Amino acid sequence: MVGLLVGVTGVGGGSLMTPLLVFLFGFKPAVAVGTDLLFAAITKSGGVLVHHSHHKSVEWRIVGLLAAGSLPAALVTLYALNHVTRIGRDITPIITFALGIALILTALALFFRAWAQKAGRSGDAGIDPDENPPQRFSHLQAPATVAVGVVLGVLVTLSSVGAGALGTVALLFLYPRMPTLKIVGTDIAHAIPLTAIGGFGHWHMGAVDFTLLGSLLIGSLPGIWIGSHLSSRIPEKFLRPILASVLMLIGLKFVL
Questions:
Q1: Where are any strands of DSSP class E within 96-200?
Q2: 161: closest CA among 40, 7, 10?
Q3: Is residue 201 a contact partner of residue 153, using CB atoms and an 8 Å limit?
Q4: DSSP H helical segments within 112-235, as ranges?
Q5: Contact 161, 155 (CB under 8 A)
Q6: How far apart, in Å, are the Cα atoms of 213 and each of 74, 103, 217?
Q7: Are 119 and 113 in contact (CB under 8 A)?
Q8: Using CA of residue 102, residue 108, residue 110, residue 114, what is the dihedral sign?
Q9: Cα torsion at 227, 228, 232, 238 (round to 10°)?
Q10: What's the pTM?
């Protein structure tokens, strides 16, 4: 089911998979997050091969800027989680709260995706972009991209959510004239090392279920293939707001 929705909407699997594993199947949040991070690293690897080899749609300079912020942030976050675990404290409340925040931010990103791209252009969001060629934040793109990477590194490591929808919207805002195909390819390429580091870190803490991981891969890969073929027949403009509303409700449930 998650693979099908990812194929149709393009929304990252973490925002859908992790809440289902917690609420529907009763997995501990830490196990759900750790397993989903490794799951994302494996599934996104195939995607980046397609984007790089067939479409040439990965901007490696931007990937490097994002990674310069996200990978150190992920390592620091893992160190902090490991420290909390070693002193005998339960990390479940931390992960649950972070998961709720990440889902709410993902829902907002889905709602305001189009606005973010317009707002990133020079001048007012309502001005015709053809009349204002320069991008608004061109002189701040590099440090802002690193800062986005830091936020994604912390959120994704804590919740497994955000590498897809949040990363895409941030790139649309900072690089509004970049083709959508390159935005997606760049975001996927950045997500692979981030989710891999996060997944291996959670594995080190004993929070990965490999039987679950295998089951998810068996089900989701065909689902993504089917969903990608159905995407042209299903009105995404209706499905995306519904999905965003559901994620918002789930996020509020985690937070409250």
A1: none
A2: 40
A3: no
A4: 113-119, 141-159, 165-174, 180-204, 210-230
A5: yes
A6: 21, 21, 6
A7: no
A8: negative
A9: 50
A10: 0.83
Spatial distance between the Cα atoms of 213 and 46, rounded to a whole number of angstroms: 16
Distance between CA atoms of residues 3 and 100, nearest Å: 21
Distance CA 97, CA 41 (A): 23
Q: What pLDDT, in 10s, does the model give residues 178-227?
A: 887 788 788 888 989 999 999 999 999 999 999 999 999 998 878 777 77
Task: Give 144's contacts (C-beta < 8 A, 6+ positions apart).
Answer: 137, 174
The number of residues in the chain equals 256
| Tokens 């080190």, located at residue | 204
Ramachandran angles phi, psi of 208, nearest 5°: -130, 130
Phi–psi pair at 90, nearest 5 degrees: -85, 125
Give residue 164's identity as a one-letter amino acid code.
G
Q: Maximum distance among all alpha carbons in the chain?
A: 59
Q: Which of 247, 204, 184 is nearest to 37 (CA)?
A: 204
pLDDT, tens only, 20-61: 899 889 999 999 999 999 998 888 776 666 655 555 778 899
- CA-CA distance, 59 to 158, in Å (whole number)? 26
d(CA 110, CA 23): 22
